[in-house]
Amino acid sequence: MPSNDKQGAEHINLVAVIGPTAVGKTTLALALAQKFGGEIVGADSRQIYRYMDVGTAKPTAGERARVPHHIIDIVDPDETLTLGQYQQLAIDAIADIAGRGRLPILVGGTGLYVRTVVEGWTIPRVPPDHALRGALAREAESYGPTRLHQQLQSVDPAAAQKVDPRNVRRVIRYLEVYHATGEPISSRQSKEPPPYQTLQLGLTLRRERLYEHIDARVDAMLRDGLLDEVRGLLARGYDETLPALSGFGYRQLIAYLRGSLSFQQAVHETKKETRRFVRRQYAWFPLDDPNILWLEADEHAFEKAAEALVQFIQQRTS
Question: Which CATH architecture has domain 209-279?
Fold first, then answer.
């Protein structure tokens, strides 16, 4: 059955496959795309970077050959992509896919990316305030990143709950938006819904099982050449302080290469930080969210997801 029969934007069907890292989103999304004639729109803030394949669990070349992917490998590690730019790229990709009669499938664990598309956020067009950024960066350097996160907590508790205090760049941006607009970024949501209806499929696992998956994934990444990937990024001249290289896995292995961590410590810290990241992801995707159909990530997940998608499309076309 055609999922989007080249209708207008108001009739676009969108599927979002969401959930924590290492839960199996890519596998499910690929299977759904192949069954329903879909294409994947990335919603992962790390997979946008070129040369960072292993450590971001990017879809393989074979997977991308089987199913078209969008918004992956679009900037270099020393370039930036604003939230507004991401949102526009995603909206354009979704419209293009649906316009060709295909099914757009939004896939990723970056809650900010997913929400800005699914909920149609109004992104504040706030130009960078370099003086404020510099002052806040110096404050973080002098007193630690927790100081800035506490400031964010006082003006925007919802955003503070969902951002890692060590992600100084994003905390500064949220504070910058607040200082410029007088409104917390978490309140900047559109009054109008986006021009499509969304079936949100959430994958989850019991926490112990998920942590086992995380440990296994980190071990697999190391076998697949993550350390060589990190060496390659440094050899290309990318500064280790870049936000792209501050993510879990990359930062710890850079510390190992610089001699400040043993290899075993780097692996342990990577696994530990990935677990922390999962807890923040669930803040974006609460298990009690009535808009998300949560599925246990087991051998029945695809069958249940496919059944839900058939019902969703039938309801939309009836």
Answer: Orthogonal Bundle (1.10)
Which H or E run includes 42? strand 38-42
Going across the sheet that includes 292-296, the strands are 69-70, 38-42, 103-107, 12-18, 196-204, 292-296
DSSP state of 186: G
Pairing of strands 12-18, 69-70: unpaired
| Top-tier CATH class for 9-122+192-207+287-317 | alpha beta
Q: Are 114 and 291 a contacting pair, CB within 8 Å?
A: no
Alpha helices in 100-249 (DSSP H): 111-118, 130-143, 145-155, 157-162, 168-181, 207-223, 226-235
| pTM of the model as a whole | 0.86
Q: Both tokens of residue 153? A: 């907590």
- Which CATH fold would you assign to the domain 130-186? Histone, subunit A (1.10.20)
- Quick: pLDDT tens for 110-146: 999 999 999 888 877 778 788 888 888 888 878 878 8
Q: Which residue's entry shows tokens 């440094």?
A: 234
